[in-house]
Amino acid sequence: MRRTAPEGHGPVRFGPPLPEDGLPVQPELSAVLAAAASRGGHEPVGGSRALREAACGYWHRRGLHCDPDRVAAAPGSPALLLALTAALGGDVLVPRPCAAWWAPYARLLGRPAFHVPTPPESGGVPDPYALLETVRRVRAEGGDPRLLVLSVADDPTATVAPPELLHETVEAAQGEGLHLVSDETWRDTLHDPHDTVLLSPAEMVPDRVTVVTDLAGALLPPGWPAAVARFPAGDDGENLHARVLDVLTALDSRVAAPVAAAAGYALGEPEPVTARLAAAVRLHALLAAEAHTTVVGAGALARPPRCGRHLYVDLAPLRPALTAHGVGDAQELEDFLTARLGMPAPGGHRFGDDLEAPRVRLSTGALVDGSDTERAECLTSPTPLELPQAHRALIRLKSVFDDLRDEAQRWESPR
User: Fold this and answer.
1) pLDDT tens figures, 186-205
2) Count of CB atoms situated within 10 Å of the CB of 168
3) What's the domain of life for this entry (predicted)?
4) Quick one: DSSP state of residue 219?
């Protein structure tokens, strides 16, 4: 009998983390963290003045002006989203699919999280007409939608929403009185920044958008949790900032002092940090493009990755082969591909997609294998995909998907 829920794989406890970069920690960051660790002490809730000023400088350089008194830091984006959801109240709207950690925090607070379909060309931002229909339906059923979480540079789809779509969706949300949280964790990982236009909702509706950036997306290792939030100007933004600090205080949610020092250094974007980021983005763009070519060549479906360290794959065209292996839903597909590939392949149900849909997120960080020296070599090589450690991983990926294609063709051939 078909399962209606993943057995033994709780949606929160087994949810996938942010895609890692697979690279050794940058020496300059290690030095800053080690120096701060030797001094002891702790950060205040919401972050020190120095950390908040560094965050303001980061946003100023991206055209988003802010005040240090309207910034809060926390040990990761989940803490900030939990505090924002608690402070705003009401029901939460998220795209389908969406980052694995968005919906659980609404459920943790006893709030419904309603998924809104995204258009075919990109993920992260709901279709505006679907958004209006969802708000209408939720209100007709007695709900109280107040918060829309979206991401222009998206996890899990690795797409970047076009500005015209974002304009329509933001206008629809504003017309319905929704507050927007813009998760901009991946905005600095555009694979082709000269040919990709990224617009923040905060540039359009500065008084209705809170911007959240998890530094694990581009500036810090995922194991050093730190995130910053930029609150809107005006009385509403001031009150929301105060309520979020109340929640963070109740949770004693502080950035560890050594991590805060490394975060402040990284947010300042000195040359070593920007050079390392550019090299890492180039590497993962190459890996993502090669992985995309592989899965599409095998008959699977995937939007071309435009940002981040991942791609989102729909294996529906290969369903005959999956069925032959006893794979009938996304959880079984996750287990099957994780074992076959030797790397995490979280199913689409982790990201709000239907359990029956055979979709997975593949992370390019898992394709960077070997020792610290070998992984660091991938950053400096002019042809990183030809290095043995990357070549082996890509060959394995191609072998697994080509086998599925061949098996699907055999099952579909007349007998």
Assistant:
1) 999 999 999 999 999 999 99
2) 16
3) Bacteria
4) T
Q: Look up residue 305 and give its DSSP letter.
A: P
Look up residue 348 and give its two tokens: 């689409």
Domain range enclosing 362: 273-412
The residue among 68, 213, 109 whose CA lies nearest residue 152 is 213
Please state, in angstroms and rounded to a whole number, the distance separating the CA atoms of residues 261 and 267: 10
Q: Is residue 258 part of a domain?
A: yes
Both 117 and 149 in a single domain?
yes
Pair 319, 390 in one domain: yes
Q: What is the dihedral of CA 100, 48, 268, 190, to 10 degrees?
A: 10
The answer to whether the beta carbons of residues 89 and 63 sit under 8 Å apart is no
Q: Say how far apart CA 245 and CA 253 lie, in whole Å.
A: 9
Across the chain, mean pLDDT equals: 93
Q: Give me the pLDDT at residue 410, please.
A: 87
Does an H or E element contain 415, and which?
A: none
Q: Are residues 155 and 303 in the same domain?
A: no
Among the candidates 269, 300, 329, a domain finishes at 269
Task: Dig out the tokens for 58 from the structure.
Answer: 């980061």
Is the pLDDT at 3 greater than 70, yes or no?
A: no
Could you give the number of structural domains in the chain? 2
Same domain for 258 and 356? no
115 found inside a domain: yes
> Taking a C-beta distance cutoff of 8 angstroms, is the pair 94, 114 a contact?
yes
pLDDT the model gives residue 13: 54
Q: Are residues 262 and 281 in the same domain?
A: no
- Mark whether 122 and 164 lie in a shared domain: yes
Does the residue 405 lie in any domain? yes
One-letter-per-residue 3-state SS of 236-303 = HHHHHHHHHHHHHHHHCCCCCHHHHHHHHHHHCCCHHHHHHHHHHHHHHHHHHHHHHHHHHHCCCEEC
Measure the CA–CA gap between 203 and 29, rounded to whole angstroms.
31
On whether residue 208 sits in a domain, the answer given is: yes
Vertex 204 angle, CA 201 and 205, to 5°: 85
User: For residues 125 and 96, what is the distance between their CA atoms, to the nearest angstrom?
Assistant: 9
